[in-house]
Design a protein that fits this description.
about 100 residues; two-stranded antiparallel sheet; 2 strands
């Protein structure tokens, strides 16, 4: 006596054979796409200002970076510094007690 198999049992091997014969997916990028390694070594001749976003040449950008590094650091108002401190404390408390109502 032959064992009885579900009706879908014969479909599964046929489906596996059909999928095994399918062509593999091409996971390579198109030939026109520039590789990331090449983009990392590209020399930039223009840039944008970190202050206002205006386009700059490479020399202007280097000069601006030097000015930003050597210039005096701006001081915040005492009220603003106090507010930032309180916000950081609030964030710390929320990580410890997440259900606190503030």
């Amino acid at each position: 006596m032959r064992p009885k198999f579900p009706s879908g049992f014969a479909v599964a091997p046929a489906l596996m054979l059909a999928l095994a014969g399918a062509e593999p997916a091409l996971s390579l990028p198109p030939a026109s796409d520039v590789p990331e390694e090449v983009l990392r070594t590209e020399i930039f001749t223009s840039a944008r200002s970190p202050v206002n976003g205006k386009p700059l040449t490479a020399a202007e950008y280097a000069e601006l970076q030097a000015q930003l590094l050597t210039g005096p650091t701006p001081r915040l108002n005492a009220d603003v510094r106090q507010l930032i401190f309180l916000l950081r404390v609030r964030k710390l408390i929320r990580t410890v007690v997440p259900f606190a109502p503030f």
